[in-house]
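User: I've been trying to design a sequence by hand for this structure and keep getting stuck. Would you show me what you'd pick, starting by listing the structure so we're on the same page?

Assistant: Good idea, let's start from the same input. This is the structure you sent:
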């Protein structure tokens, strides 16, 4: 059984029977103080050496001396006689024992031997005893959590017996020995009895803390001292207890009220875990008092309505109106979301207290959340990172992410590990997330032993140098203590902290589910269990508040509950009068000047740069500091080459086009963030945004030096994950409306590893939550003979998701188009995700370049007509003479042009659709209108017919072109796999594609 809860302490000491002699040690040398075979060293030599290392040897020698003074070397005999006054004193003054000796038996400092204990007779080394005690201390610190009382149901079988003295070679008769306890926080000396009490209370009461994985000495010591000094408990006054009870009752009454008024509706009740509310309340206040000004919470469905009402202070009337399902029929663009996914935010204020005279304000947000558990994690972290960047929170202590997880989801979803892995990375750190795992000991109907192979649901977090606190949800003082520890740890060490709240789920997964079908024993126990309120009352009675305050009575809590019910009734009346449920707020604050909605309602903006701006950026990227040595192979390309491009001496390639877009936006003060796997260099070695000195490896980022006051340029190599990083950058874009935020896939094919973020956030967040984003996704795409997973970013999937102008999807053919598209994304006050099928071979293709003039004039072109076929080059031909129009997008355009050139067909026009969605259908019709009616218009794509844009274009254009043009498609054949693995087969397919495109056969 992998579950460590069944583990057995293997104390490294062997149990000692009372009176038994210790294992014989070296009495004549062999220890550190002597040299084996040469008799013991002189006392001076031994005592002047390393004191602690020599102590065992000297002690053993001392016991030998006590038994038989003649058996030890005369020099040692003289020394020992001088210590206990029986010697002549010779040499004693010269031999002042080192500090460690002074704490040892020689001075009676560290261990007091009770009179008559017969130390010489038992021959137990004091040093050995101390070592055993130390091992006991370490056992509590490392294993105490396995014996802690965590489960309010008392059902979890913890097979580890209580940590026993015997396991460490100690016995009850040692309990009154006084030991040095310098390495335990508290008094320097203590009896073993008191020490064991302290350890038990600290490590095995209602808090189990995992420390064994911590090797960072500073943070480990900080934790030990905080916990041991307080015995891991925060004494609460009567007023504190009343406040906590009030919060628990608020949670309880809301659930009961919803149950009564909206019977049969799902609400994912918090009952059994009501402690979450006082936990969060304390956390928010503690954070506010520790300098936090923004706190973003991510959580799933369980207890969310309760958190909304009781922590976010969302008016209950709004929640009730959502139950009453008063949707707005005049809001066709919004499909909305279920009430337990909705977000909210509020300013919370905390006034002066006896220990803190200041008033603190903190803005608390609950992020909108899809049903997919855990996928909101990095979204929240990305949002917080953006907030920190916006307010200049460089220490990352002023904005705090808090993630609330279910136990099954935390253990099961891989994105949890991905997000933990990101927590210490420069490009993604947020100064620590506080995680709360609501461990209700079941996931839907699945029991923990079917849901995880680990001891705790939190075990994945042991990968980090962070504490993991497990706490019994029925002990308010323990709960308060772990909250304070977690927040303080995060603020001090800027790392994550984990709190696992042990509780239970009073009802089924939702309120209609019957939990006893699958967990009958657990649910019998739950049915017989008093509520959390009652547990807290019992705790109060059993642990009187300081100062002799009277216990809180049931009547007092009944009065609180009645007041809460009364208030909810009033809120229900308000809800009943509301015409519709209030819509989530949007476009306030930083978003005030920004729009979502229909593309056609937001005008285009100029995106060309001035020649001076181009020169400024060119100068920045082509003049490196004097002490910087660029790689010899790169100099002609990214330094000299780009200088020539910027001067208009060479056509501009893709990498330079991008650098100009970034540089001009930065110069205008916009922040640019690009993150992805190997994005700094660029997977295809085309970007080189961060240069590495050839001699000493130091780095230089040219675009960070465009002008004195410019936007921040941040390009990050991400960890090897798609889902978590895309989620993070998506979150970042939500809180950085004025910046350009880009996530780049290594190859577009891998984007499906982030499909949840695309489906659940990117394409639907505006419809569900009125939340818009301007995130750009760069997805390398193109059939280039590189096999199935290096060819296809699944354009078809994105196009399938497009509706109501929810996204923009482009497949661009020139660097200038890319330049204008990126600038438009920021300069136009319109935020929609922009999906770009980005190039691979085109990055270096001389054909796919743009003249400088395309950057200093013009703007983004949705559709690029074929001016060649319309007569500019091929003999002033009348477009009406064109016999065939090829409509295409992306790289295949260049294949078609080359093929046309090769075949000498000058009666074929090739029209490019650069932005596929939203598609400018009227513009396209206008472009096509120059051709004679009845001309074949052929959609040509390099992807298999069941992929690429064909299905979408057919949907869009079939009706539009009907009766005007013959509409058809040329593509690779239908295929399960996006591309062949054979280069030869690829070439053959490509030749066929070209032949079919021109309608001439191979
Ligand atoms: C990714 C994902 N898979 C499956 C589900 C369906 N589902 C909803 S809640 C739930 C159980 C979650 O258990 P736990 O994490 O322990 O939270 P609890 O509901 O017990 O609070 C499941 C499987 C989901 N929402 N998301």
């Amino acid at each position: 059984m992998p579950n460590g809860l069944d583990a057995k302490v293997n104390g490294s000491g062997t149990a000692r029977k009372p009176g038994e002699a210790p294992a014989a040690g070296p009495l004549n040398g062999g220890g550190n103080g002597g040299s084996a075979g040469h008799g013991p060293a002189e006392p001076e030599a031994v005592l002047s050496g390393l004191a602690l290392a020599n102590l065992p040897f000297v002690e053993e020698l001392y016991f030998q001396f006590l038994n038989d003074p003649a058996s030890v070397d005369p020099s040692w005999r003289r020394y020992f006689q001088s210590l206990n006054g029986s010697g002549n004193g010779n040499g004693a003054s010269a031999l002042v024992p080192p500090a460690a000796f002074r704490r040892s038996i020689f001075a009676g400092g560290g261990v007091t031997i009770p009179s008559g204990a017969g130390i010489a007779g038992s021959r137990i080394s004091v040093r050995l005893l101390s070592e055993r005690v130390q091992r006991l201390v370490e056992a509590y610190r490392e294993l105490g959590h396995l014996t802690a009382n965590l489960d309010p149901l008392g059902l979890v079988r913890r097979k580890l017996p209580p940590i026993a003295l015997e396991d460490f070679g100690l016995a009850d008769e040692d309990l009154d020995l006084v030991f040095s306890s310098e390495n335990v926080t508290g008094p320097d000396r203590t009896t073993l009895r008191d020490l064991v009490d302290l350890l038990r209370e600290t490590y095995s009461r209602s808090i189990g803390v995992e420390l064994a994985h911590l090797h960072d000495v500073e943070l480990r010591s900080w934790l030990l001292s905080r916990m041991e000094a307080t015995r891991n408990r925060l004494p609460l006054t009567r007023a504190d207890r009343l406040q906590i009870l009030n919060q628990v009752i608020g949670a309880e009454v809301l659930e009961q009220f919803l149950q009564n008024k909206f019977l049969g509706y799902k609400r994912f009740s918090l009952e059994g875990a009501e402690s979450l509310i006082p936990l969060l309340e304390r956390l928010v206040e503690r954070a506010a008092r520790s300098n936090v000004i923004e706190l973003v919470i991510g959580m799933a469905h369980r207890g969310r309505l309760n958190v909304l009402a009781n922590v976010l202070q969302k008016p209950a009337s709004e929640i009730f109106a959502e139950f009453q399902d008063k949707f707005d029929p005049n809001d066709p663009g919004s499909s909305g979301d279920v009430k337990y996914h909705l977000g909210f935010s509020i300013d919370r204020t905390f006034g002066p207290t006896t220990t803190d005279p200041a008033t603190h304000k903190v803005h608390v947000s609950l992020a909108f959340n899809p049903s997919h558990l855990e996928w909101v994690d990095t979204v929240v972290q990305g949002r917080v990172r953006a907030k920190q960047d916006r307010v200049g929170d460089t220490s990352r202590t002023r904005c705090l992410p808090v993630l609330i997880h279910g136990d099954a989801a935390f253990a099961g979803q891989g994105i949890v590990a991905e997000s933990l892995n990101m927590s210490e990375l420069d490009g993604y750190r947020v100064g620590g997330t506080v995680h709360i795992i609501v461990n209700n000991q079941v996931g839907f109907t699945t029991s923990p032993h079917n849901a995880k192979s680990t001891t705790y649901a939190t075990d994945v977090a042991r990968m980090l140098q962070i504490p993991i606190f497990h706490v019994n949800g029925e002990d308010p003082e323990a709960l308060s203590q772990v909250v304070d520890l977690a927040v303080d740890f995060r603020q001090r060490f800027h790392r994550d902290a984990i709190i696992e709240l042990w509780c239970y789920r009073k009802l089924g997964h939702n309120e209609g589910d019957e939990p006893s079908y699958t967990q009958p024993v657990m649910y019998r126990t739950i049915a017989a269990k008093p509520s959390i309120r009652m547990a807290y009352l019992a705790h109060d009675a059993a642990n009187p508040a300081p100062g002799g305050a009277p216990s809180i009575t049931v009547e007092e809590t009944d009065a609180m509950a009645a007041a809460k019910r009364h208030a909810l009734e009033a809120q229900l009346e308000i809800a009943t009068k509301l015409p519709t449920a209030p819509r989530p707020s949007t476009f306030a604050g930083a978003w005030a000047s920004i729009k979502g909605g229909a593309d056609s309602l937001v005008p285009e903006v100029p995106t060309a740069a001035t020649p001076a701006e181009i020169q400024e950026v060119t100068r920045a990227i082509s003049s490196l500091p004097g002490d910087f040595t660029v790689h010899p192979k790169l100099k002609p390309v990214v330094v000299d080459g780009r200088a020539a491009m910027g001067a208009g001496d060479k056509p501009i390639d893709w990498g330079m086009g991008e650098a100009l877009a970034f540089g001009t936006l930065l110069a205008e003060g916009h922040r640019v963030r690009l993150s992805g796997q190997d994005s700094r260099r660029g997977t295809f070695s085309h970007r080189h945004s961060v240069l590495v000195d050839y001699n000493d490896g130091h780095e230089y980022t040219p675009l960070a030096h465009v002008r004195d006051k410019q936007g921040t340029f941040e390009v990050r190599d991400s960890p090897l994950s798609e889902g978590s990083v895309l989620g993070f950058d998506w979150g970042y874009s939500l809180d950085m409306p004025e910046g350009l935020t880009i996530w780049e896939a290594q190859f577009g094919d891998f984007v499906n590893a982030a499909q949840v973020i695309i489906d659940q956030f990117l394409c639907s967040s505006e419809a569900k939550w009125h939340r818009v984003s301007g995130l750009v996704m760069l997805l390398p795409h193109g059939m280039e003979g590189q096999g199935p997973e290096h060819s296809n970013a699944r354009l078809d999937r994105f196009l399938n998701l497009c509706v109501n102008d929810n996204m923009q999807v482009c497949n661009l053919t020139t660097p200038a188009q890319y330049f204008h598209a990126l600038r438009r994304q920021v300069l136009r006050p319109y935020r929609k995700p922009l999906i770009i099928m980005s190039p691979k071979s085109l990055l270096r293709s001389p054909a796919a370049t743009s003249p400088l003039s395309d950057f200093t004039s013009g703007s983004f072109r949705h559709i690029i007509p074929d001016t060649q076929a319309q007569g500019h080059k091929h003999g002033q031909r009348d477009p009406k003479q064109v016999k065939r129009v090829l409509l295409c997008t992306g790289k295949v355009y260049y294949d078609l042009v080359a093929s046309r050139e090769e075949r000498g067909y000058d009666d074929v026009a090739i029209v490019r659709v650069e932005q596929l969605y939203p598609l400018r259908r009227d513009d396209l019709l206008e472009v096509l209108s120059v051709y004679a009616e009845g001309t074949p218009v052929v959609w040509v794509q390099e992807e298999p017919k069941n992929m690429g844009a064909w299905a979408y274009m057919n949907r869009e254009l079939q009706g539009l072109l009907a009766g005007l043009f013959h509409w058809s498609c040329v593509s690779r054949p239908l295929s399960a796999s996006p591309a062949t693995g054979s280069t030869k087969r690829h070439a053959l397919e490509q030749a066929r594609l070209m032949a079919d495109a021109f309608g001439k056969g191979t």
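That's my pick for every position. To get oriented when you compare it with your attempt: The chain is about 35% helix and 10% strand. The radius of gyration is 36 Å.
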